[in-house]
Amino acid sequence: MRKIKEALRLRFGHGLSVRQTARSLGMSHSTALQLFSRASNAGIGWPLDEGLDDQALEAALYPPVEPTGEPRPEPDVEWIHKELQRKGVTLQLLWLEYKRQHPDGLQLTQFCQRYRKWRRGLDLALRQSYVAGEKLFVDFAGQTVAITNPETGEVSRAQIFVAALGASNYTYAEACRSQDIEAWVGANIRAFEYFGGVPKLIIPDNLKSGVKHANRYEPDLNPTYQDMAEHYGAVIIPARRNKPRDKAKVESAVRVVEEWILAALRDRRSSVLLSWTWRSAKPWWI
């Protein structure tokens, strides 16, 4: 405010030009020109009126801007959060739907910022640390692969088993004929063979082949799956129901498999099941 008063004094009190005043006070020519234009529109000269204090001078030179038009509609962040839980739904898709309803609404950047700012206020997740060789996360992917019988032309769907080590994210994946106990246990064993060892803890999802009855504290494991763990000296601790963070490693591995393997094979016709070994290899429990 002191510089504004000095500019008014030099310009209107001493008759300096706009450029001379700007050079004297170390401000740009455009800034000084805008200041004197505002002063002229507000009827302010030099000397200043006695009752014009700093606050009144600022209000006269820079009056508050009145909002024009109706405010742009805010997105429903709770609805956005709920829709994002559905597979394949993205923020960009929800923004396009929002813009169809509100053509004068927020642009994509502001739309995403509104949601992410709201999302930061939700429950925070504790970052987990992993010890090498301690935990192996196992699950079946949601996507399947079409397998065509070359003799009959019959098409069946192969299930994709995925295992990921906690510390290294090292991932193993194979296609299985089904999600039954034989395929499940066999895929676990072949994952051990692929990794070259057995982890201390196995963290599966609550599928029926591994867990008969899910419980947060005392889950009822499938006896065959439990026998396999005892045979290899491992401990099975199923993830809690509806708690994807408990098995975030395999969730990420499943996404990598779906995007980098299954997506690349989407137009390829396969007549040979990748995981045929479970049929020819003698199970350990026989």
Helix content: 40-55%
Count of DSSP H/I helices: 11
Strand content: 5-15%
CATH superfamily of the largest domain: Ribonuclease H-like superfamily/Ribonuclease H
Radius of gyration: 34 Å
* Stretches with pLDDT under 50, minimum 5 residues: 273-286
Distance between the termini: 90 Å
Number of structurally distinct domains:
3
How would you describe this structure to a colleague?
This protein has 286 residues and is α/β, with parallel strands linked by helices. It is 41% helix and 15% strand. The chain is built from eleven helices and seven strands. The strands form two sheets. Strands 3-2-1-4-7 form a five-stranded mixed β-sheet. Strands 5-6 form a two-stranded antiparallel sheet. A hairpin with a 6-residue loop joins strand 5 and strand 6. Helix 2 crosses helix 3. The chain starts with a helix and ends in a 6-residue tail after the last helix.
